[in-house]
Amino acid sequence: MITAVLASLAVSGPVHAAPIKPASVIASSTLPGEPGVSYSPSNLKDRKQSTVWVEGDTEGSGLGTTLEFDLGGTYTVTELHVWNGNWYTYDFWNRHNRVKELVVTFSDGTKENHVLTDEMVRQVVKLKKPHSTTSVTLKINQVYRGTTFPDTVLSEVVIYDDQPSTVVPVKAYKDSSHLEADGDGSYDPVNVSDLVLDSMWCEGAEGDGVGEWIELDFGKPQKISTLSLVNGNAYGLSYWMKSNRVTALELSFSNGTSQTVSAKNVMLPQLIALEPVTTSSVRIKVTGVHPGKEAAADEAYNCVCLSELAFLR
Questions:
Q1: Which of 127, 196, 206, 267 is deepest in the core (most CB within 10 A)?
Q2: Quick one: 178 and 298 in the same domain?
Q3: Helix (H, G, I), strand (E, B) or coil at 84
Q4: Residues 175, 192: Cα–Cα separation, whole Å
Q5: For residues 155 and 145, what is the distance between their CA atoms, to the nearest angstrom?
C-alpha cells in the first residue's frame, strides 16, 4: 500500500501572511539518532511531518528544553503552525508525549505563553501581537503524556510573517475519488494544501488515474495566474518513482472556460503559468499520466497522487 502520513484538517494558511524559511534550528537537547533515522531539530523545517525532532532529556519528558529558530533576518512574526507530537503514524502519535504549553520568546526578550490542544491536527498559534524579531525560541513548559514512550516530539513548525501571500486561499475541496485512509493516514483532497510534502491526495478509481479530478473552491471570485504543483507521491524518491505522476491537466473554471497545461515529471515544486482568469473555483482533471515503476505489477501504485497544489494570484 502507498505510504503516506496523516493530513491535517482543513486549516488554510493565513491570507495575509507568508511562511518564513529559517536559516537554522538549534535544540538544547536531542535524542541520538538510529541507523538511517535522525531526530535532528532541522527536521522541523523540512516540510515533512514524518521526519520529527525528539528531545533528548534522559531523565524526564523534556520540560525546559528549547528550540531556537534563527530566521536569517528581521521579520514581523504573526503566528506559528505546529504539528504537535510524532506524526509518523497514528500509533506513534499516541505513544509519544506531545507539547501542552509552549513559551515563545523573541530576540528582544519578550515572551508569550501558548497552550496547544492534544489533537493530531495542525495547530495555529496566533500571537497576541506581531513581534519584530530575528529569532523565535520555543520552550516546552508542559506536556501531554504518551501511552508508551517518555520522549516529547514535534514534527513540523512553520513561522509566518506579516507579508502578503500570493496563494489564493481555498474554502472547500471536492474530488472524483480518493484512496481509503489506512494506518498511515488519509488521502483526502485537503492534503494538497497542508504545507507538507509527505501527505497527499491520491485518486482511488480503477485504472491509471486519467479522468479523475480534484476541485478547489475559493468561496468568491479570485484572479489566478499560476499553478504551483508538487507532482506525485513526495513522501520519498522511491515512492515517487513507484507511483503514477501527471503529465497533463485540464483546468475548468467557474466562468465556463478551461485551459490545458503540461506538468513536468519531477518531484521538485514547479510553477505552471496560466492565462490569467478570474474564477471562484477550479476543477483539475488528470488527462495525461506517467506510469510509476510499480504500477503495472502492483495495483496499489497504479494511481495518481498530487502532494501539493495551489493557485497564485
A1: 196
A2: yes
A3: strand
A4: 12
A5: 16
pLDDT in tens, 133-172: 999 999 999 999 999 999 999 999 999 999 888 999 999 9
Asked whether residue 68 falls in the same domain as residue 110, the answer is yes
Burial of 121 (0-12, 13-18, 19+ CB in 10 A): middle
DSSP alpha helices (H): ranges in 23-112?
90-95
Check: CB of residue 293 under 8 Å from CB of residue 242: yes
Task: At 41, give phi and psi (nearest 5°).
Answer: -65, -20
The values of phi and psi at residue 93, to 5°, are: -60, -45
C-alpha–C-alpha distance, residues 241 and 65, integer Å:
39
The secondary structure of residue 164, as a DSSP letter, is: P
Sign of CA dihedral 213, 204, 3, 296: negative
pTM over 0.85: yes
132: domain CATH number is: 2.60.120.260
